[in-house]
């Protein structure tokens, strides 16, 4: 029971910290009250195809973007790269490298959001000044996780985030922490992760908070027989700058080589339906590749986004 009590302790500790971060004393809409919104963009085709219900399922290098505790289950080194044609002609890219070292697993990650150049407008020149403006975001992270028992892992990450708009840029240091616990009942696992915790940031005379996310999840293999597996999971997501939402996903795996995935995100305005697949073709000696694709619908206005992830385990 000690590992389970440890998980509950972290759960209570960071949940209280999450609630305390936004205590205004009265009710009003929280939308638009935090910065660095690019941190909420889902990373990885595998994870987004499952409706982002993955805080308890992650077990590879992509764990750094959802729940760093997932790194604790890794036994091989892995590198992954993801690309997304994000909304309004922007590009979202990421790279993650993770490797076991003795009893812990370390990981490094990089995320960038590049926005297409746009023409500057002013009060005097509302139609444009012929001057082009750059904008975008960067993230550099370092994570570590440890498997404390055959059922419990705990992980954390420190990361530097930066936002740039024309000739103005600003950054901050943020932290993630999470845990995954196998209950011993079937393959049921419980998880929580607390992401993007850090101090408020002031730019010029404007002060804004961080886009904190608190995820509680559960996942289980509901069917597993002769190389065929069906896994489902659900995540409850509590942001401090918006309404709560629920993620649900299901994956059907054939012979550990081909997967079909689908998911749905409840109580979000756009990006509800998600679909995708994964391939694990034969490797070259000790090099095992993985290819994943995800389709996420953003309605008639924004259309759909397509995510691609290529990974190698070695």
Plain-language structure description:
The structure is a single chain. Helices cover 9% and strands 54% of the residues. The protein has 314 residues and is mainly beta. A 14-stranded antiparallel beta barrel has the order 1-2-3-4-5-6-7-10-11-12-13-14-15-16. The chain has a two-stranded antiparallel ribbon with strand order 8-9.
Please state the CA-atom Rg, rounded to the nearest Å. Answer: 20 Å
List SSEs in N-to-C order: HHEEEEEEEEEEEEEEEHE
Mean pLDDT equals 89
Count of alpha/pi helices? 3
Overall shape: globular
CATH topology: Porin
CATH superfamily: Outer membrane protein transport protein (OMPP1/FadL/TodX)
Q: Structural class of the secondary elements?
A: mainly beta
State the low-pLDDT regions, or none: 17-26
Number of strands: 16
CATH class: Mainly Beta
């Amino acid at each position: 029971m000690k590992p389970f009590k440890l998980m509950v302790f972290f759960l209570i500790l960071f949940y209280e910290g999450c609630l305390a971060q936004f205590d205004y004393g009265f009710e009003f809409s929280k939308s638009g009250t935090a910065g660095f919104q690019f941190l909420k963009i889902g990373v990885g085709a595998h994870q987004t195809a499952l409706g982002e219900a993955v805080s308890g399922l992650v077990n590879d290098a992509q764990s750094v973007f959802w729940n760093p505790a997932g790194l604790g289950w890794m036994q091989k080194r892995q590198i992954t790269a993801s690309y997304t044609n994000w909304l309004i002609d922007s590009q979202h890219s990421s790279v993650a490298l993770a490797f076991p070292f003795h009893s812990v697993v370390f990981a490094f990650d990089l995320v960038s959001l590049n926005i297409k150049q746009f023409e500057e407008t002013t009060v005097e020149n509302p139609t444009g000044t012929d001057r082009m403006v750059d904008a975008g975001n960067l993230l550099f992270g370092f994570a570590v996780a440890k498997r404390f028992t055959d059922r419990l892992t705990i992980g954390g990450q420190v990361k530097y985030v930066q936002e740039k708009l024309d000739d103005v840029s600003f950054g901050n240091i943020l932290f993630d922490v999470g845990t995954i616990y196998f209950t011993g009942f079937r393959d049921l696992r419980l998880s929580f992760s607390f992401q993007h915790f850090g101090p408020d940031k002031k730019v010029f005379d404007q002060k804004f908070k961080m886009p904190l996310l608190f995820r509680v999840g559960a996942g289980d293999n509901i069917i597993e027989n002769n190389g065929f597996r069906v896994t489902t999971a659900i995540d409850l997501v509590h942001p401090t700058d918006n309404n709560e939402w629920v993620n649900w996903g299901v994956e059907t795996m054939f012979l550990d080589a081909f997967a079909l995935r689908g998911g749905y995100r409840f109580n979000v305005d756009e990006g509800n339906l998600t679909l995708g697949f994964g391939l694990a073709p034969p490797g070259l000696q000790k090099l095992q590749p993985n290819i994943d694709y995800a389709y996420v619908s953003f309605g008639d206005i924004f259309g759909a986004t397509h995510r691609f992830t290529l990974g190698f385990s070695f």
